[in-house]
Amino acid sequence: MRTSRGDCRASRLPDRAGALASSAGCRRSRLTVSNPYDDLAPEYDKWITGDPACVPTVKFYLGWLAQAVGRIVEGGVGTGRIAIELARRNQLVTGIDISAPMLSIARDRARLLGPECTLSLCQMDLLRLGLRSVDFFILPFRTIGHFVSHDERLQVFNQIFGSLAPGGRFVFDHYVPDLAWARENHCRPLRMFTEEAGAVRLEIWDTYEFDFARSLLNCAVDVVRNRRSSEASELHEPSRRTVAFTFSWLAPDEVRELAAVTGFDVEAHYGDFNEGPFNAQSEQQIWVLRRPLGRGP
């Protein structure tokens, strides 16, 4: 997970599933936290189910790394959805994240694998890695979009390049922006998750405010709980928690430029999570970059 000083798990452009009746247009005042994923951690795994890429992302990385031998690092490991499955296969994996609450959830899950678990977790900033001799560095679920300036993205690429052993791979994904969808859903609340648990109804909503000129969106996540009285069918005043962050999309041309400047070779560029070729109709961009052999630190 990341804010301006670290790494983050994805923002998304999901299918529209509804509208929050109490919201009208963009909200200019939003609650901002030092790291949004600290506050989103308890609901994170529920929230992301509203993203169509939630399951395909996991399947892609687990499949792509199925035969991987060597040291794997996952940036923005979050609650460990991918890293724990890699460890379950006894692959050597390190998960890093800037959010302590997200890492706490991942650690609790990793303990269930027992004392021989091959997963290590640490709080670390992607902008200041200091790692060496990594064979595979993955940055899943559009994490790169949380680095909102070109300079930040270049720094991430340089940090990851320096962490890889010669011949090591850097694999990451991002969406291809659907600008027509974005214009239609600009400032329109989107339902990401709904759950009834006893007397409590949980709803999670995303609202995206797009800055098309700068390829940015401001995302406000509303976590709303409605409690029903046990004595009547009345609803109490809902509790609402709002978390906001800024997210960036990037064009394939920028990725190629970043790779060239950093020194990466482009080994593969997929247009979907089934490793189909990238073309003008692709909704995803999945990159496999390789540090050339013979390039020392």
| Topology, number of strands | 11
CATH class of the largest domain: Alpha Beta
* Helix-strand string: HHHEHEHEEHEHEEEEHEE
The main sheet orders its strands as 3-2-1-4-5-11-10
Fraction of helical residues: 10-25%
Report a brief summary of the structure.
The protein is α/β, with parallel strands linked by helices and 297 residues long. The chain has helices at residues 36-40, 44-47, 54-64, 83-88, 100-111, 150-163, 179-185, 252-262, and strands at 72-75, 93-97, 119-123, 134-139, 164-175, 190-197, 200-211, 216-227, 239-248, 265-270, 284-290.
Q: Could you describe the 3D structure shown?
A:
The chain folds into two domains: 36-44 and 178-248, N-terminal domain of TfIIb, CATH 2.20.25; 50-177 and 250-290, Vaccinia Virus protein VP39 (Rossmann fold, 3-Layer(aba) Sandwich), CATH 3.40.50.150. The chain is built from eight helices and eleven strands. The chain has helices at 36-40, 44-47, 54-64, 83-88, 100-111, 150-163, 179-185, 252-262, and strands spanning 72-75, 93-97, 119-123, 134-139, 164-175, 190-197, 200-211, 216-227, 239-248, 265-270, 284-290. Strands 3-2-1-4-5-11-10 form a seven-stranded mixed β-sheet, with helices on both faces.
